[in-house]
Amino acid sequence: MPDRDVFDRHVQREWRKVARLLLSAEVDPSVLQKVMRHLGDDFRRKGCPGFDQIVSIVVEAASSDQSMEIARQVAVNRLEQTRRCEGASSTEIAVGAANVVLAELMHYHEAVVADQKELELRFAAQILAELAAKRMNFSSLLPEMVEHNLLSYQTMAARIERTKRSLRSSPDMRALAAQILQDPSGRTLKLPRRRKESRSQADLLVSTISE
């Protein structure tokens, strides 16, 4: 089964090429800017009502004096209220991404020493990275790529983790996060300029499955 079929079936058209690039054996750093553009375009079209509130809920959970189990449950309940209150599909996706970030906090929770602004940017960038992963549908790509022997589970999982880590630490992601916190509607976003494509679709097909 060609990997093109897997991507066509599971990833929205506008996200397919960047998903292939990010899951390649080697990733050009310029690909991250493509992700920012796709995320920015999504926010411009749909906005994300309550994004700033979602980030604030995660920040409060991370800096809470309560046990992480209790803080997380309180945050999950508040996120669900936000989802119901806003009623937008983009908000629902962002809430799902925030829940992933909260679940990760359970594994390495410790006292958070940072000012409010830094915490907001950090967690906003993490949530945006999870949003990008959801847009590229990594959770569906992983088992099918493995099932059809296109990549091993370890290789695929490692590339997904590499992608999330790169997105979270990207200065461009932090800059995008800062803009979205200021304007969750996305109407005033300024995005990275487009760069000329340098790789053919055939190159992408080969590099995606190279281990």
What does this structure look like?
The chain has helices spanning 3-10, 13-22, 31-46, 51-62, 68-86, 89-108, 116-135, 138-147, 153-169, 171-182, 201-208. It has one domain (3-208). It starts with a helix and ends with a helix. With 211 residues, the chain is mainly alpha-helical. It is built from 11 helices and no strands.
Number of strands: 0
Can you write the helix and strand succession as a string? Answer: HHHHHHHHHHH
Beta-strand proportion:
under 5%
Low-pLDDT segments: none
Q: Helix count? A: 11
Describe the structure in brief:
The protein is mainly α and 211 residues long. It has helices at 3-10, 13-22, 31-46, 51-62, 68-86, 89-108, 116-135, 138-147, 153-169, 171-182, 201-208. The mean pLDDT is 84.
Write the layout of secondary structure elements.
Blueprint: H1 3-10, H2 13-22, H3 31-46, H4 51-62, H5 68-86, H6 89-108, H7 116-135, H8 138-147, H9 153-169, H10 171-182, H11 201-208
Helix pairs in contact: 1-8, 2-3, 2-11, 3-10, 4-5, 4-6, 4-7, 5-6, 6-7, 7-9, 7-10, 8-9
